[in-house]
Design a protein that fits this description.
The structure holds 2 protein chains of 2 kinds. By secondary structure, chain A is an all-beta fold. Chain A has no helices and 11 strands. The radius of gyration of chain A is 13 Å and the shape is globular. Classes of the chains: A mainly beta, B mainly beta. Chains A and B meet through strand 4, strand 5, strand 9 and strand 10 of A and strand 5 and strand 10 of B.
Chain lengths: 112, 114
């Protein structure tokens, strides 16, 4: 069964720290993987999309890496800010599926 | 430009009632998706439209759920004989052409079945 897991479910760190969020998935034959941010009442925003052939993607202070062989992706956030507080979700599309399969997310709190 | 919009933002109904949830995608986006999200969980895929047709409805939980997109833009998710277990946030997303494109999400409709 194709599943996506995110651990921890919640994370609280002081402002300014660099941090890493984890996403693991079964079945390494993925098509692509995306990281999303979810703010209460505002829906989901796509942050980074990594194609199967790529190893990483960067946008500003965010860097997402992909290691298919180990079934893992990480989202690195540099110099965290209180505005980064949100729930971060990882979603995977496998070749044989139209659907995005989602992790349950990591709720991140950045303390001023 | 305008993003994906969903109405209503909140819907409270009684068990057994019929509800309709509306999604207005980004203009020009041919692909539209419906998801359901329960508290503390990631979104669960329901149905995917390509134009006017449902390309994949494998996520619809049962025949009480139905969705339409008659003109290839606005979509309506319809739930008959609502049950308490249907309570969730229903999310709509659209993408320019299809499943390989970035999906843009609406704010969701919070459905509460009493």
């Amino acid at each position: 069964k194709q599943e996506v897991t995110q651990i921890p479910a919640a994370l609280s760190v002081p402002e300014g720290e660099n941090l890493v969020l984890n996403c693991s998935f079964t079945d390494s034959a993925i098509y692509n993987l995306q990281w999303f941010r979810q703010d209460p009442g505002k829906g989901l925003t796509s942050l980074l999309l990594i194609q199967s052939s790529q190893r990483e993607q960067t946008s500003g202070r965010l860097n997402a890496s992909l290691d298919k062989s180990s079934g893992r992706s990480t989202l690195y956030i540099a110099a965290s800010q209180p505005g980064d507080s949100a729930t971060y979700l990882c979603a995977v599309r496998w070749d044989s599926n139209y659907q995005l399969i989602w992790g349950a997310g990591t709720k991140l709190i950045i303390k001023p | 430009g305008a993003g994906v919009s969903q109405t209503p933002s909140n819907k409270v109904t009684e068990k057994g009632k019929y509800v309709e949830l509306r999604c207005d995608p980004i203009s020009g986006h041919t692909a539209l998706y419906w998801y359901r999200q329960s508290l503390g969980q990631g979104p669960e895929f329901l149905i995917y439209f390509q134009g006017t047709g449902a390309a994949d409805d494998s996520g619809l939980p049962n025949d009480r759920f139905f969705a339409v997109r008659p003109e290839g833009s606005v979509s309506t998710l319809k739930i008959q004989r609502t049950e308490r277990g249907d309570s969730a946030v229903y999310l709509c997303a659209s993408s320019l052409k299809g499943v390989t494109d970035t999906q843009y999400f609406g704010p969701g409709t919070r459905l509460t079945v009493l």
